[in-house]
């Protein structure tokens, strides 16, 4: 598994370990490293394998945590982070599909009560209990073993991690609030197969918000406008299509009618043109 040595979104996307249901990010950070860290569309379960982090989350007071603790970040969190020593960290992102699958099977038996007044910026710091620690260790073993069925094994183990998290007071609140918040509902629509065909007005209407109210709330939470988010999402999807389609066909496929505009935006976002990106991929 690749080691990520900074908090660049490009590097996180390029060097993560994704399966159908989870995304794993392994960070290898030097002593005295500091930067702003973000979660994006999903909650992030942050763990430390070695070292120490000093953090301030969503403008909270600064605190220090190590391998004995985990932090559960809600989507679109801002974290100011510094390493007082060499630090290795493993971060989990769980898909809505996996969370739903586990929740539907166990939430009734767990008798979970969801808080109604949770803030969007609410995060949770907790001690890693014995069972969660064992599962976390198992994930690391699976990564090292590189079994042919690694994706299956990771998904299977992460189901149990989610189950253990749901048993901890406050974790389910963050996950539930994430899934049912109108902005995250809108983001799921944008990420759907036909999301690039939807207008911002249509999306706002679907989540029962006025266009102005939706745009303002979206910007407040994600730090970007709905239009900018949708554009970046289209560019990201276009990278997948560029493996099999021409630049022109790719542009049309993800909703760009002006090819030159698409090329200009792609280069601004990724530092290369779509054609250069294609050539680079074909060489690997």
Automatic annotation (TrEMBL):
It holds the Pfam family AraC_N. Keywords: DNA-binding, Transcription, Transcription regulation. The gene is rhaS_1. The keyword DNA-binding applies. Residues 184-280 form the HTH araC/xylS-type domain. This is HTH-type transcriptional activator RhaS. InterPro entries: Homeodomain-like_sf, HTH_AraC, HTH_AraC-typ_CS, Tscrpt_reg_AraC-type_HTH, Tscrpt_reg_HTH_AraC_N. It comes from Vibrio quintilis. One of its GO terms (molecular function) is sequence-specific DNA binding.
């Amino acid at each position: 598994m690749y080691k990520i040595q900074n908090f660049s979104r490009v590097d996180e996307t390029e060097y993560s370990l994704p399966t159908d249901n989870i995304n794993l990010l392994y960070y290898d950070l030097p002593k005295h490293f500091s930067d702003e860290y973000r979660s994006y569309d999903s909650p992030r379960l942050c763990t430390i394998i070695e070292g120490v982090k000093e953090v301030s989350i969503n403008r909270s007071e600064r605190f220090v945590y190590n391998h004995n603790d985990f932090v559960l970040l809600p989507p679109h969190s801002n974290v100011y982070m510094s390493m007082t020593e060499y630090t290795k960290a493993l971060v989990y992102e769980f898909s809505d599909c996996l969370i739903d699958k586990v929740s539907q099977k166990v939430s009734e038996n767990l008798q979970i009560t969801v808080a109604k007044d949770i803030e969007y910026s609410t995060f949770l710091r907790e001690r890693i209990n014995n069972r969660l620690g064992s599962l976390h260790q198992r994930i690391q073993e699976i990564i090292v073993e590189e079994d042919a069925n690694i994706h299956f094994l990771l998904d299977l183990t992460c189901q149990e991690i989610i189950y253990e998290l749901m048993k901890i007071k406050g974790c389910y609140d963050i996950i539930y609030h994430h899934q049912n918040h109108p902005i995250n509902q809108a983001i799921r629509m944008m990420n759907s197969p036909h999301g690039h065909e939807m207008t911002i007005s249509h999306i706002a209407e679907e989540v029962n918000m006025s266009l102005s109210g939706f745009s303002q709330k979206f910007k407040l939470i994600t730090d970007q406008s709905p239009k900018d988010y949708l554009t970046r999402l289209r560019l990201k999807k276009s990278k997948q299509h560029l493996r099999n389609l021409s630049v022109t066909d790719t542009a049309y496929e993800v909703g760009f009618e002006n090819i030159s505009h698409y090329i200009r935006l792609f280069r601004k976002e990724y530092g290369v043109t779509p054609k250069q990106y294609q050539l680079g991929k074909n060489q690997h």
